Amino acid sequence: MGSFPLPSVFSKNTAVKIIIFGIFIAESILVITFCWKDFVKIFKGIVDFMKNK
Q1: Does the record's keyword annotation contain Membrane (predicted)?
Q2: Rounded to whole angstroms, how far apart are CA atoms 25 and 41?
Q3: What are the tens digits of pLDDT across the range 5-33?
């Protein structure tokens, strides 16, 4: 087992990459949803502003 460390190292690196990728995707989704909510608020604010004028 000592002479074949490659598979375990490879699987660890793959797991880490998958975890990092998953976190990145989750954060991207959160950022998009929060920005979308802000965008909708801003858009509604602009529409209300136009209606009032």
Answers
A1: yes
A2: 24
A3: 566 666 778 888 899 999 999 998 988 88
d(CA 15, CA 12): 5
pLDDT exceeds 90 at position 1: no
Task: Quote the pTM value.
Answer: 0.46
The Cα–Cα gap between 22 and 16 comes to 10
Residue ranges of domains in the chain: 1-53
Distance CA 9, CA 6 (A): 5
**What is the phi/psi pair of residue 6, to 5°?**
-60, -50
